[in-house]
Amino acid sequence: LQITGLILGGVGMVGALAATAMPQWRVSAYVDGNIVVFETIWEGLWMDCISQLGIRLQCKFYDSVLALPPPLEAFRALMCVAVVLSVLSFLAAIAGVKYSQRGKRGPRAVSIFILAAGVAFLLTGTLVLIPVSCTGAAIVRDFYDPAVPVPLKRELGAALYVGWGSSALLLAAGAIYCHCWC
Length: 182
Prior knowledge:
This protein has helices spanning 2-21, 70-102, 111-143, 158-181, and strands spanning 26-28, 39-43, 47-52, 56-61, 154-156.
């Protein structure tokens, strides 16, 4: 059970890092009757990208941190904290699995690493879930808002799905480690 939690936590950690780095948080939506699409716009936490005809991809990092909207700054901070915390919880899980396999002195002798990893994985999964779900809710709200012009409407990007999946894996790993501790 601990090895399963370690695998789920490791895959969730990689997914959280990938979701943080991916520029496909918000993807341009095509709601008009026009089928011919010349460019695709991706918006992420760190950069915007434009793909023209699927051949040429241009990405540009955001110029100033101070010019970003406050929710984007908060989402960046939450994802960075989640990535660091996921690495620390993965290391605590490795230590817990290693010492619980080696030492058989008693059930409570090494359980502090297992408990720390479980709580940290649960917290990390929650930290990833917050910005991903808030971004998804904002995209859906703006998509159905008639006041938003058609060129500014966006769809859910691949990074959001990666974030939701990694959040589920991190929460599952945390639940497994908390169960092992109990």
